[in-house]
Amino acid sequence: MTPETADEPLVETVVAELESADSEQFLVDPQRPVLDALAEAGSRLDEVPPIHLLGHSDRLVQLRRDFPLASRLANLTNPTDEASEDAAARGLTLWQTDVDLQRGLLVDDRRLLTVALVGDFVGVSTTVDGSTTTAVARPGDDARARGSVGEDAEPREVVGEDAGAEGPVGSDAGTRGSVSGDAETLVRNVIDECREVRAEAQRRFLETPPLREVLDSCEEALGAEFRRGFERAVAVGQEIPDPTAFHAVRAALLVGAYQCCEQYEVSEWGSQTGLGAEATFSRHKCALEDDSVIQGIAESVSAGGRPRQRLYVTDRAAEVVESDGLPGLIRLGAVRE
């Protein structure tokens, strides 16, 4: 599934960077479009190199609440590394730090300027007419010792129209173009600073099951039609202005009601997959019933059998489904603060 939110030129840039990587990569406080591109780029590779995402607590918490994005990024993590603190593990790892991390992007009709601040180390990359000027310095350092911002800065030629686009910073950065010895030193200085920050950072986990595993397991438990419905629901979640309003448990219940599934089967699958505990499913079902979106209707059972409920959409929701299908139902059932 190619997310509509991913920018294809940026995806291609990240793919090229990861394919050429021969060492660990650092992603500093990335914005959502970059993470979207990373998730899509990683899905096109047989193996993902070590990528260390450095971010603040609020950014990482927001990412974990964004199921459509977090579940796709979870595809890039190493499942055998969940209980490990090994920083050299391949795949994506998350690191929480209190160090200043800032990235900015300034674009006009002839220049793209990217600024990164990692602790007290500042890196500036300016692309003008296809060439990139790089400068890195600490406050108080002699700028010319590491490069300087402005006309005297060492140039770095980058291949492609998207030269200078925001993406992973790797110790092999610049291998796709001609880089002066001074520029290589600048890149190494930034990487060294990133490694120092990571060494003091706290390891964090997405706490979200990989979307690939979720889809495979739901097809096995509930059938191919449910898988297609849930995959469509996640795609709709990516289009919602506030992705955190999409809740995977609600989506599963809504797909279940759309397909008239048994509540027990949906909640049992969801709890085993890691979407949420059965109590979480019960709580969200009650909330959706209170909002007159779905309803659970008890089915008759044989003597001694366990009472079961089958999920259905309400008359109110049926009107939305008639006009907008499952996507309309997912948007109707989105979390509202």
Question: How would you explain this protein's 3D organization?
Answer:
By secondary structure, the chain is of the alpha+beta class. It folds into two domains: 8-204, no CATH class; 211-332, Arc Repressor Mutant, subunit A (Orthogonal Bundle). The chain is built from twelve helices and twelve strands. Strands 9-1-2-3-10 form a five-stranded mixed β-sheet. Strands 4-5-6-7-8 form a five-stranded antiparallel β-sheet. The radius of gyration is 24 Å and the shape is elongated. The model is unreliable at 105-113 and 138-181 (pLDDT under 50).
Features:
single chain; alpha+beta; 43% helix; 12 helices; 337 residues; Arc Repressor Mutant, subunit A; elongated
Distance between the termini: 29 Å
What's the helix count?
A: 12
User: How many structural domains are formed by the residues?
Assistant: 2
C-alpha Rg (nearest Å) = 24 Å
The share of residues in helices is: 40-55%
> Could you state the order of secondary-structure elements as H and E?
HEHEHHEEEEEHEEHEHHHHHEEH
Briefly note the structural class of the backbone: alpha+beta
Sheet with the most strands, sense and barrel status: 5 strands, mixed
Q: Walk across the major sheet and give the strand order.
A: 9-1-2-3-10
Tell me, what's the shape?
elongated
Average predicted local confidence, pLDDT: 77
Strand elements, count: 12
> What percentage of amino acids are in beta strands?
15-25%
The parts where pLDDT drops under 50 for at least 5 residues are 105-113, 138-181
